[in-house]
Amino acid sequence: MRKIFLFFSMILIAAALLAAPLKVAFIYVAPVGDGGWSTMHNEGRLHLERVFGDQIVTDFIESVPEGAEAEVVFRGYAQRGYDLIFGTSFGYMDSMVKVSQAFPNSTFMHCSGYMTTDNLGTYFGRMYEPRFLSGLIAGAMTKTNIIGYVAAYPIPEVIRGINAFAMGVQYVNPEVKVHVVWSNTWFDPAREKEAAESLLDIGADLITQHQDSPAPQQAAEDRGVFSIGYNSDMSAFAPNAFLAAPVWDWGPFYEYVVRNVMDGTWTNEQYWGGIKEGVVDIFVSDLVPDGVAKLVMTMREAIVQGLFHPFDGPVYDQSGALRYAEGERPTDAELLSMDWFVNNVVGKIQ
């Protein structure tokens, strides 16, 4: 009788374990309501809740600085038995490597990084594709031929986006210069608005950005000029200025990762999806003329079909040196380590 009791007890325990929801955590570098980067990652988290229901439990912590504080947060989730932990900022990389090695029973995914461990993978999107498309709009709509770009940090991710945007601008208007000002922030609305205003003061009649707040868009609206956002549709913040934005859609990718963890097929891959995979795209507002919007959609399809790449040669850098000749295009390794500006960018990599 005792053996039978133990047998059924084991079955009940196993069933309970199988029924336990997957615990998934997200760590954000900015407020979840920033209207940009963290908002879109949180939309991906909400997508998981809609798709998986009571099969998962999700949690998040917002506004976590990169560095020692982030390590404490990652460690805390791992200690509480979270199965899958997403870190959504480049500067979390060292912390995630360290914590993942200390907690091999948890799975970690780092956004925009390049380091992996046995239980740490990386993921990102080919944002340079819609960045190029947004450059087509900017180049077609500027009148002063001066475009301002408020940039976050001088890392390859940001540099690559600036260059892709500038290539799009150059594609339709070789006379335009893209002026870069560094804010050295991911989310600091006051500082980012001030940086945008400094670009407006030199004659820029269009502002774009690589930060998480809509502040540069609002600076453009205040001055009566156009803007191109980032991360999401920011038209609500600057309805008379906002033309377009390269945007993220993390939901399907997060679903893919969760399913792999659930069925035991997860690997520490380094994922880099583009428009074709649905991770990135471009949002175009009604302020963009039909002819320009049609060009954008035509070039978008060419990118999806593999017929065009934003860095197809010839590509020259600021010094005039030929980086990619006619018919050449960069490798992924070259894109991921980009540390130079194309020839129509004004500014230094500091």
TrEMBL record:
Keywords from the UniProt entry: Lipoprotein, Signal
GO cellular component, one term: plasma membrane
Ranges for domain ABC transporter substrate-binding protein PnrA-like: 23-290
Keyword Lipoprotein appears in the UniProt entry: yes
A Pfam family reported for this protein in Swiss-Prot or TrEMBL: Bmp
Protein name per Swiss-Prot or TrEMBL: Putative ABC-type transport system, periplasmic component/surface lipoprotein
Organism: Mesotoga prima MesG1.Ag.4.2
